[in-house]
Amino acid sequence: MLRSLGLRSDLSVLAGVSEVETYPDRIVLRTPSEPSFWYGNMVIFREDHVEPKVQIAQFQRDFPDAEHVTLAWDAPGMERGAGHAALVKMGFDLDEADVLTLTGPLIASEAPEGITIRPIATDADWEQVIALQIETGVEQGYDRAAHTPYVRARCATRRRQIAGGGACWLGAFDGDLLVGDLGVFLGEGTARYQNVETRPSHRRRGICAALVTAGAGWAAACDPDAIPVIVADRDGAPGRIYRRCGFSLAETLISAVKGSY
User: Fold this and answer.
1) Residue 70 CB coordination number (10 Å)
2) Cβ-count burial of 244 within 10 angstroms (0-12 exposed, 13-18 middle, 19+ buried)?
3) What CA–CA distance (Å, rounded) separates 169 from 152?
4) Quick check: helix, strand or coil at residue 114?
């Protein structure tokens, strides 16, 4: 059992598509259908010791064909230390995340005037999700040519998971145009929000908060006891939106990734 609520919710997001191997010192998460999914193919170390050379070598033994390296530690509250600094010098990016949960009432938000929120259902809907996620990735600095096949593979997997139950993808539409979307996945006692994003032209209008509200409603109807969980970049703007919805800090996590593009 993982100590980290955030990492447990990561497993719920990948239920049915990933394989989990358990060892005394680590957990290996594999997604065979998506070998280029960095956080779907990673090693989670059980202790909070960061030993760059040893742990990189372990990842390479577990994933001999991988073009990336992703390391995580089941250590809620971990602070950046010398081992993390060494990883940065070796070309890794550190992902310092806030794990937020809803422990009280949701501060609900209605969709802005002219915006409709509904499940993503058709091929055309999903093509809009793919296009928006590609644009969001490019905005974040990813190479379009390399990022596009990753997004398409991720969305194909999500569609299979949703068809199997226990997950939902919601879109916010301005007429026929998708202007925001998010996913919610149930499992491991959590309702994990995924990929909350808004089109640049429609930001600062409350669409994100309305999507979070709709997602919470769907999750509560399916599993009233599931703990809503959102993982956000530490001190980032999205985290502030979630806090205004009633979410609060449950734990902090650090992972390290050296991507393939």
Assistant:
1) 23
2) middle
3) 15
4) coil
- Judged by DSSP in three states, 46 sits in coil
Residue 12: pLDDT over 80: yes
Q: Report DSSP letters for 147-173, one per residue.
A: HHHHHHHHHHHHHHHHHTSSEEEEEEE
Q: How much is the mean pLDDT over the chain?
A: 96
Residues 6+ apart with CB under 8 A from 257: 38, 39, 68, 69, 70, 71, 92, 93, 95
pLDDT single digits (tens) 150-159: 999 999 999 9
Note the helical H segments in the chain: 5-13, 52-62, 82-89, 123-139, 144-163, 207-222, 237-244
Domain ranges of the chain: 5-98, 115-251
Q: Is the pTM of this model over 0.70?
A: yes
- At residue 120's C-alpha, the angle toward residues 118 and 124, to 5°, is 125
- Running DSSP on this structure, what letter comes out for residue 111? P
Looking up tokens 């058709």, which residue turns up? 122
| Superfamily of 115-251 according to CATH | Gcn5-related N-acetyltransferase (GNAT) (3.40.630.30)
| Separation CA 213–CA 190 (nearest Å) | 16
- As a three-state string, the secondary structure of 81-103 is CHHHHHHHHCCCEEEEEEEEECC
Say how far residue 23 (Cα) sits from the centre of its chain.
Answer: 24
194 beta partners = 183
What pLDDT score does 95 carry? 96
